[in-house]
Design goal:
Elements lengths: L1 E3 L4 E6 L2 H6 L1 H10 L8 H12 L5 E9 L2 E13 L2 E6 L11 E2 L5 H15 L4 E8 L3 H7 L4 E12 L7 H6 L11 H7 L4 E5 L5 H22 L9 H11 L8 E8 L2 E9 L4 E9 L8 H15 L3 E6 L3 H6 L4 E10 L2 H21 L18
Parallel strand pairs: 5-7, 12-13
Antiparallel strand pairs: 1-2, 2-3, 3-4, 4-5, 4-6, 7-14, 8-13, 8-14, 9-10, 10-11, 11-12
Helix pairs in contact: 3-9, 4-5, 8-9
GO molecular function, one term: acyltransferase activity
Keywords: Acyltransferase, Transferase
Organism: Paraburkholderia kirstenboschensis
Length: about 375
């Protein structure tokens, strides 16, 4: 499918994986030029398609734009069938990454993003459009938020540590204050009372060790999830687990991440996966052994992740979440990202009206009740 909006500007929707693969050289060049995040890279999107989206039967909808033949914008999306309705979502696993358009930050960016949004609405055949974690400073957020048929819009706190240009590591640490009454390095000293503590970056080419530690991290994360009563779909997804391993090493595309492991007497007690930076690195996934929870091994892994990013000349994005350690390393700086879902078709509106009618019947059958609601479509507002 294609659509031409100017004599030299052309939008296309890539639906074939061979065409997507052919974009790699231009995609890589744009990603470097635009200083894209790891989830906008070709490596990430190709691995996500091969190991997560395609096995689940999703349909590729990668919107691209060229000006005078040069690739200037990429927005990787996909469609998901749920019952009788089609949802348009970002390409990739539902693990908490932001949503944004890969485009150079120049004067033409707002128009390019608006063109991509119009293509998404009009040409992707979606009944609903689900946009998770869109930073409110982005042009994309402005476009999404002014749509008339918004089902829900949920804000999330996001934190990121600006590390470049902060002098030495010791100087940066002195500017932080304390976390739970402790300064950087203190948690390692506490854990050292239990035995020999070591921290290392796993060799990306050692696929066996990488897979073993990631499996261990997932088991730790599931145990934590059961204790606190939180469970995400991706936590029980073997496809997502394999995908994380492929981010660290794949024979098909360049590596996009590293695995940092904290060991006690040579056994893992915490691990964290961090992306390479461009210049922003991202903390992707972490797990720790709850047996040593009093020694805070998870906080040691986070500290080592920050130090790794610092030493490699990257800033570090922690993603969404109001955890105290994120605000600490970001020195209190926070932003807001929004998860928004809109109705995009008459067929989608029919689903909303049917649900409203069903709720009204149920309320009438149960007798008098408070009719106040948090929103007209709260039944559809649950996260995927």
């Amino acid at each position: 499918m294609n659509e031409t909006t100017h004599r030299t500007r052309r939008y296309d929707i890539i639906t074939d994986e061979a065409q997507m693969r052919a974009l790699q050289p231009e995609w890589d060049a744009l990603w470097m030029r635009a200083q894209g995040y790891y989830y906008q890279s070709f490596s990430y999107c190709w691995l996500a398609w091969q190991h997560v989206s395609k096995p689940h039967g999703r349909m590729l909808k990668c919107i691209v734009c060229r000006e005078d033949g040069q690739l200037v914008m990429i927005w990787p999306l996909e469609t998901v069938k749920r019952a009788l309705w089609t949802y348009l979502v970002p390409l990739g696993p539902e693990g908490g990454d932001y949503t944004s358009v890969l485009v150079a930050d120049d004067a033409s960016a707002p128009a390019l993003i608006e063109g991509a949004w119009n293509m998404a609405r009009r040409r992707c055949g979606a009944d609903f459009i689900h946009m998770p974690y869109v930073r409110e400073t982005l042009d994309l957020h402005k476009l999404v938020s002014r749509e008339r048929r918004v089902l829900f819009a949920e804000p999330h706190q996001a934190s990121a540590a600006r590390l470049r240009g902060q002098g030495t590591w010791d100087e940066y640490c002195r500017s932080l204050g304390t976390l739970f009454g402790k300064r950087p390095g203190s948690f390692v000293k506490r854990l050292s009372k239990e035995g020999i503590v070591a921290v290392r970056v796993v060799d990306p080419a050692d696929e066996g060790e990488t897979a073993s530690i990631i499996e261990w991290m997932f088991n730790c994360k599931r145990s934590w999830s059961d204790r606190v009563g939180k469970r995400s779909v991706w936590l029980d997804s073997p496809e997502f687990e394999r995908f994380l391993g492929r981010l660290i090493y794949s024979p098909d595309v360049p590596s996009m991440a590293r695995l940092i492991v904290v060991t006690l007497n040579e056994a893992p007690v915490a691990g964290i996966i961090v992306s390479l930076g461009n210049p922003w690195a991202s903390a992707i996934f972490a797990g720790y052994d709850p047996y040593y929870g009093r020694c805070c091994p998870g906080l040691i892994a986070v500290e080592e992740c920050v130090k790794w990013a610092f030493n490699n000349g990257f800033d570090l994005d922690f993603g969404v979440g109001a955890e105290r350690f994120k605000a600490y390393w970001a020195r209190g700086e926070a932003s807001t990202a929004w998860t928004t879902q809109i109705v995009n078709s008459h067929w989608g509106m029919l689903a909303i009206r049917a649900r409203r009618f069903a709720r009204a019947l149920a309320a009438r059958a149960s007798g008098p009740a408070d009719t106040a609601t948090t929103g007209p479509d709260s039944a559809l507002a649950s996260r995927r």
